[in-house]
Specification:
- The complex is a heterodimer of chains A (210) and B (332).
- By secondary structure, chain A is mostly helical.
- Chain A has a single domain, classed as DhaL domain (Serine Threonine Protein Phosphatase 5, Tetratricopeptide repeat, Alpha Horseshoe), CATH 1.25.40.340.
- Helices cover 70% and strands 2% of the residues of chain A.
- Chain A has a two-stranded antiparallel sheet.
- Chain A is globular, with a radius of gyration of 16 Å.
- In chain A, 63% of the residues are buried.
- Helix content of chain B is 32%, strand content 23%.
- Chain B has 8 helices and 14 strands.
- A 6-stranded mixed sheet of chain B has the order 1-2-4-3-5-6, with helices on both faces. In chain B, strands 9-8-7-12-10-11 form a 6-stranded mixed sheet. In chain B, strands 13-14 form a two-stranded antiparallel ribbon.
- In chain B, strand 10, helix 7 and strand 11 form a beta-alpha-beta unit.
- Chain B is globular and about 55 Å long.
- Classes of the chains: A mainly alpha (210), B alpha/beta (332).
- Chains A and B meet through helix 3, helix 4 and helix 5 of A and strand 4 and helix 3 of B.
Chain lengths: 210, 332
């Protein structure tokens, strides 16, 4: 695929919603170890609402669809995940503007804008043991590999997100609710980095299907 | 899971409907899950709203009424409410003098209240925020999300609420709430875990001979797991970090608040209070006011938290001022 259009975006979000629903228990389980046992529940609730919202849109309008996804997440997820994932999609929408399809560089810019929004809203930096530790390497990897096309970029991004997720498991959390645990947060897989990895895997697979 | 519920998804809305049915003279419930003082907005009065995840009852909805909160936003159990709720609450209570947001320091609460404050300001409502972060179990450093907001929140809501009821302006009410935050410290512990209805099983497993020291109010594991000890030893383990942190020193007057986590009977809270009173006396602190009961809870968790507020004449006067809410009522 050389261009990322509205149909690809809808497939991406639908795939992400399906996988969050399938892996709801796993995410909640990870969150009970170092958080407050609601990550899977909240994400599933938010993306169930997103799915309903997508049914109301025709989905061909890329930017407005991304914006609707972001607004729906902010209004339905709660916790920290709502504002963070919501901001990711809103900033993507702003970067997309009124383009109907994105080339590899434009998709990279949209993902970069989403990442910067998450960092701005959550004030997390590298190694704080948060979703940023999966998202930042994924965006970097996309930009480095997208010369070979969108599929190659997304393959690299999904691999980098998973590597980021696994890399921070031994670390002590410095942001979010896991940081209250101090040393006890070490050696637990981070739920936010896990859902972010699912996001990039969904993006990769949705594009591969198209 | 054994709970008095109809369906996990309906717990929050049905509980709010029950509150509205029970306390229609004090409050009403508007969409989306916001408890609003019955006579809001009151022209010329600063509005005060708070909110957070549900599961901490009576906080916050139980503190809506005369002399305390004007509105409370109820999120899902242990999940921050969303910006739409705080925006609706802010608009519902704005009497033209601005609205104070009292926010407990949790990442999600902070972000959702921030978004709501930005939206309210875009609509021309003046909003200030005070973040309560009084839990000494968490190190306040660059390497954590900062201290959690726990028992001190109840005291800040009462004291700021009294000042707003008296007609103080937004800057004064905000500064007062911030001063409560600077003068209050808390710490909590758990004997048992609790079960989030949507999760269906306890958040953590804990043995009959174990306890969690330094817990927050979301059924999250604490700072440290220890062997179960006597009430006096537990009280010491909570009180010593509190006393040393502010620090509280000889001659100080304090408000001592012994709180139940939801599953601990009052008789045990008085056993704890007995030791709190002894320790305060030993340190030369005078307990001028107290509050004993379950006011900020974690569902059915057994356990307690202790909060000390250093009092001055202004705090004492506003603490004593009339309050009429479902959970706190005196002077009326």
């Amino acid at each position: 695929m050389s261009e990322f259009d509205g149909a690809a975006f809808v497939r991406f979000v639908t795939t992400f919603a399906d996988r969050l629903h399938e892996r709801r228990e796993e995410l909640t389980e990870l969150d009970s170890a170092i958080g407050d046992a609601d990550h899977g529940i909240n994400m599933d609730r938010g993306f169930t609402a997103v799915r309903a919202k997508l049914a109301d849109l025709d989905g061909t309008d890329l930017g407005p669809t991304a914006k609707a996804v972001g607004m729906t997440l902010i209004s339905t997820v709660g916790g920290a995940s709502g504002p963070l994932y919501g901001t990711f999609f809103l900033r993507m929408a702003t970067s997309i503007g009124d383009r109907s399809a994105l080339d590899p560089a434009e998709l990279g810019a949209a993902l970069r804008a989403g990442l910067e929004g998450v960092i701005h809203r959550g004030k997390a930096t590298n190694d704080d043991k948060t979703m940023v530790d999966a998202m930042a390497p994924a965006v970097d990897a996309f930009e480095a590999s997208a010369g070979g096309g969108i599929s190659a970029g997304l393959e690299a991004a999904a691999t980098a997100a998973a590597a980021g997720r696994d890399r921070i498991t031994p670390l002590v959390a410095r942001k979010g609710r896991a940081s209250y645990l101090g040393e006890r947060s070490a050696d637990h897989q981070d739920p936010g980095a896990t859902s972010t990895t699912i996001l990039f895997e969904s993006l990769r697979d949705a594009v591969a299907e198209g | 899971m054994k709970k008095l519920i109809n369906a996990p998804d309906a717990v929050v809305s049905e509980a709010l409907a029950g509150m509205a049915a029970a306390h229609g003279d004090l409050l009403r419930v508007i969409e989306p899950n916001v408890v609003v003082r019955a006579d809001a907005p009151r022209l010329g009065k600063v509005g005060i709203i708070s909110g957070g995840g549900s599961g901490h009852e009576p906080m916050h909805g139980g503190f809506v009424g005369r002399g305390m909160l004007d509105a409370a936003c109820a999120g899902d159990v242990f999940t921050s409410p969303v910006p739409d709720q705080m925006l609706a609450a802010t608009k519902a209570v704005d009497g033209g003098e601005g609205v104070l947001h009292i926010v407990k320091n949790y990442t999600g609460d902070i972000m959702n209240f921030e978004l709501a404050a930005e939206l309210a300001q875009e609509e021309g409502i003046k909003v200030t925020s005070v973040v309560i972060a009084d839990d000494v179990a968490v190190q306040d450093s660059l390497y954590t999300a900062g201290r959690r907001g726990v028992g001190g929140t109840v005291l800040a809501e009462k004291i700021a609420g009294a000042a707003a009821e008296e007609g103080q302006d937004l800057a004064t009410v905000t500064a007062l709430a911030a001063r409560v935050q600077d003068s209050v410290r808390s710490m909590g512990m758990a004997l048992t875990s609790c079960t989030v209805p949507a999760a269906g099983k306890p958040t953590f497993e804990i043995g009959d001979d174990e306890m969690e020291i330094g817990v927050g109010i979301h059924g999250e594991p604490g700072r440290e797991r220890r062997a179960l000890a006597s009430a006096d030893e537990i009280t010491e383990a909570l009180m010593t970090p509190i006393l040393d942190d502010l620090p509280f020193s000889s001659g100080d007057r304090v408000l001592a608040f012994v709180n139940g986590m939801g599953g601990t009977p009052l008789i045990e809270l008085y056993v704890i209070y007995n030791k709190v009173a002894q320790m305060c006396a030993d340190r030369g602190l005078k307990i001028d006011r107290n509050l004993i009961g379950s006011y900020i809870t974690s569902l059915e968790m057994a356990g307690t938290s202790i909060t000390l507020l250093k009092l001055d004449d202004e705090f004492t006067r506003f603490w004593d001022a009339p309050v009429h809410t479902p959970a706190l009522r005196w002077g009326v």
